[in-house]
Amino acid sequence: QWLSDRKKRALQKKDVDIRRRIELIQDFEMPTVSTKIKVSRDGQYIMAVGTYKPRVRCFDTYQLSQKFERCLDSEVVTFEILSDDYSKIVFLQCDRFVEFHSQHGHYYRTRIPKFGRDFSYHYPSCDLYFVGASSEVYRLNLEQGRFLNSLQTDASESNVCDLNPVHFLFAMGTAEGKVECWDPRTRNRVGLLDCALSSVTVDTEIDGLPSISALKFDGALNMAVGTSTGQVLLYDLRSSNPLIVKDHHYGLPIKSIQFQCQLDLIISADSRIIKMWNKDTGKIFTSMEPEYEINDVCLYPNSGMLMTANEAPKMNIYYIPVLGPAPKWCSFLDNLTEELEENPESTVYDDYKFVTRKDLENLGLAHLIGSSLLRAYMHGFFMDIRLYHKAKMMANPFAYEEYRREKIRQKIEEARAQRVQLKKLPKVNKELALKLIEEEEEQQVTRRRKQKNLPSLLKDDRFKVMFENPDFQVDEQSEEFRLLNPLVSKISEKRKRKLRILEELEAKEQEEEEEPEGKASDAESSESSDDEKGWVEEVRKQRKLLRQEEKVKRQERFKEDQQTLLKPQFFEIKEGEEFRSFKDSAKKQKLMKKTLGDRLKLEEKLGTLNVSDTTVGSKQATFKLKKSEQQKKQQEAEKQHRQERRTLRRSASHLKSKRGRGRLF
């Protein structure tokens, strides 16, 4: 896109791919901008309007070229093809004029009272319904050739309108964010939807009241509504709540809504992006972001072709094979797409190199970001291939030597593949791997044909780490290994010899020397059968060695204990506790080591716990908490205090009785 025209022409001469590019329709473009694009009902003609000067162009798909071009007095807001071909067309212009064209050209021109924004054609009654900057919907009857009584709405202005193709319900979207539905037979309003309120969800952020910018019916019951804040609402006419609310997340008005019935998709577009999503789940199918702003989208009927009118001279044509087959006038596209799928080729720019920001930092060219030498594209930059090669040579002057060394290594690997392959053992647990290989070879010899092949541990991904991670290395000097595998020493000696032979062969192969012819090893010739007596002697020998090692370790620990000086340790006693002796702590430790059953029996003997059976059959346990020394002292003091009070009361009552007797006498 940033290449000059001269450079593009030069590329067309050199590049075979550019010369093979397909131009479906010749001169499928406008002088400056295209605003609307539509397809006739018979599928033969594609009509587009644009500027500048205001004009309409008709393209014949059978001839793959332009059929005619007509200039107009003012810009076209929207248009409609009334017939199956191009013979009857209605244009709504920006200066309130409605212009009718027939097959030969301009036919008639009339004016509506207010500026129009959209219109729809009611086929049963031949009425045109115009909506615009007014609360009224103007009706123009084409059979009688005169205006009929307008429909009075509650809206201040209307933006879009549409007629249901099944039952001809007329719907119009207002600037207040509402959709009014009218019955053309009775000319009465039959429904009102508040789409502005329904479009506001938890995640959406809006600055003002959303208005209706797009409207489209699907069948008899479904209707899609697009708002000026970038939401698409799918309604069932039997409900006032939307089935799905889809947000474009750009905050731009929805320009066009189309239905793709084969895959149950909705194609919605704003000025920046085209999104295709499932109308049942709302899941995104795909999206397209053209180079220029989108004005209108047209889906070619019963195919996977999509056309867009843009803020650019060229009108884009997209073919998506998943949506449907190619139209019959360009059926060769199906064969081309099949060939592309069979032979995928990566496109490479010969004159430019794509580099990321990290590549620029490695080359030391990060300071060129923002200059004319780098062209920003997606997540990186395009730079001249000559500059890239110079920077690469300066950053890594030995790149050619590395490349040459790598090529030589590849040639050597190819030659090695033709030789006899040796057993490649892993770095970790080589002896275990060799043992498994030998067992597999023995099983292959003795295995019957009907038995299934068992999976190998060396090839199983679950045990892959055991031969890669050094933490899983088998410790042959450990006590468990030596006792459980008493005969492993003899067998390991045989395997170690084999390992040495294999390592020598690998070393010779790396030195690029000739391989010696294999000879029978001494280990195989000196193989002897181990009986039970030999096994017992080996176990005794291992146990004797373990005892000797343990005795040596004990002596070393004893020497270390004699050399270390014991220092006194001091313990802090908590407040409120008295230190008696170390025997109490020892008793507690012994008690804690006992099982729960032993502790319960001990507490039953002491009388602190009582376990009894209930009538239901379960166990009932009652226990008494042990009292601390401080609580015991407090209880003794309280008991002594109560006794003193009793003695005082008794003495006082005794004195009173004596005084009473003295008075009587």
Describe this structure in words.
With 665 residues, the chain is α+β, with helices and mostly antiparallel strands. Among the domains are: 24-329, Methylamine Dehydrogenase, Chain H (7 Propeller); 347-412, no CATH class. It has 15 helices and 32 strands. The strands form 9 sheets. Strands 1-2-3-4 form a 4-stranded antiparallel beta sheet, with no helix packed on it. Strands 5-6-7-8 form a 4-stranded antiparallel beta sheet, with no helix packed on it. Strand 15 and strand 16 form a beta hairpin.
| The CATH top-level class label of the domain at 24-329 | Mainly Beta
Number of helices: 15
What CATH architecture of the domain at 24-329 do you see? 7 Propeller
CATH superfamily placement of the domain at 24-329: YVTN repeat-like/Quinoprotein amine dehydrogenase
Unreliable spans are 512-530
Approximate shape = flat
Distance between the termini: 140 Å
Percentage of β-strand residues: 25-35%
Based on CA atoms alone, the radius of gyration comes out at 48 Å
CATH fold topology of the domain at 24-329:
Methylamine Dehydrogenase, Chain H
Quickly give the structural class. alpha+beta
Report the mean per-residue pLDDT as an integer.
80
Record the strand order, biggest sheet. 1-2-3-4
Number of strands: 32
Major sheet summary line: 4 strands, antiparallel
